[in-house]
Amino acid sequence: MSEGAQGTASAAGTIDVGGDLTVNRLGFGAMRITGQGVWGDPPDREEAKRVLRRAVELEVNFIDTADSYGPDVSEELIAEALHPYPEDLVIATKGGLVRPGPGRWEPDGRPDHLREACEGSLKRLRIERIPLYQFHRPDPKVPLAESIGALVELKNEGKIRHIGVSNVTESELHVAGGMTPVVSVQNRYNASDRSSESMLDLCEQETLVFLPWAPIIDADRLKSVNHAAGAHKASVHQVVLAWMLARSPRVLPIPGTGSIEHLESNVAAASLELSPEEVSAISEEL
User: Fold this and answer.
1) Which of 107, 180, 195, 198 is deepest in the core (most CB within 10 A)?
2) ∠ CA(197), CA(168), CA(242), 5° rounding?
3) E strands within the chain?
4) What pLDDT does 4 receive?
């Protein structure tokens, strides 16, 4: 398999989100279609929209975004490029972070802010209900129960279909899950950063979707990854994505890019089959 190999996201198989939304198990993260520092417009808005359309052509039917990406820009571009949406497309967005400037992220878990953020996402995405709405990050200044309670209210009003959480600990997940069904967890996780390994294990036990963010960062740090890349004539990014897909059936990788070439290369990873020995070698290197 070469870096330019073609493939579609359907080769990764499927996963159920919340028990009633079935998507292909290789998604797209829409953070990188914004400007530098995840701030403002991308250098070429039309190119960003072409990337989104190409993702759908490659059978990607799960797109992850957030109101803080831009801010607002990512959601606006998704709607401009893809609305009216294909019936099987699931758009997941997030609220709970505000952006004072490029590269800066600050939590805001106040119920009033979350309601405002959700309403804004609904308008920008041009939808009446968000399929998966994720609390972006717990706010140390606001009790978690208050933040999750705001999402429960929005769900009861029909503005959210399913609730997910992001950047949480196991205890925080238990708090949220005690208040409402939580269907997904989005934490940082990749071949070089296994700090959320126990969270992934918990998602397996609870049949939750695990969305690893930064899935391909530092892909070339591990010897086992480089070895597998050479053996398969694949990129290191493709290898770590294939490893994640093999690691657990609850993993739904969401690599992001602003480049069609990189998008096609990432999606081709769905067709890359690592041997059990290669999967074990990568898993055990750290």
Assistant:
1) 107
2) 40
3) 14-17, 21-24, 28-29, 62-64, 90-95, 97-98, 106-107, 130-135, 160-166, 182-188, 209-213
4) 41
CA neighbours closer than 13 Å in the CB half-sphere of residue 82 = 30
Nearest C-alpha neighbor of 120 from the set 140, 142, 98? 98
Pairing of strands 28-29, 182-188: unpaired
Q: What distance in Å separates the CA atoms of residue 24 and residue 255, rounded to the nearest whole number?
A: 14
In 3D, which of 1, 70, 57, 5 has the Cα closest to residue 28?
Answer: 57
The CATH number linked to 224 is 3.20.20.100
189 is catalytic: no
Using an 8 Å Cβ cutoff, are 148 and 179 in contact? yes
Q: Which domain holds residue 191?
A: 9-285
Confidence of residue 286 (pLDDT cuts 50, 70, 90): confident
Phi, psi (rounded to 5 degrees) for 236? -65, -30
pLDDT tens digits, 21-46: 999 999 999 999 999 999 999 999 99
Q: What is the pTM of this model?
A: 0.96
The neighbour count for residue 139, using CB atoms within 10 Å, is 20
In the predicted model, what is the mean pLDDT of residues 218-232? 97
Give the three-class secondary structure for 53: helix
Written as six digits, the tokens of 75 are: 């959601």
Residue 1 lies in a domain: no
Nearest residue to 69 (alpha-carbon basis) of 45, 33, 122, 22:
33
Instruction: Check: CB of residue 40 under 8 Å from CB of residue 70.
Output: yes
User: How many separate domains does the chain show?
Assistant: 1
Residue that has been written with the tokens 């990788």 in this structure: 253
Separate counts of helices (H) and strands (E) for the chain: 10, 11
| Domain-embedded: residue 2 | no
Name the catalytic one among 69, 85, 133, 189. 69
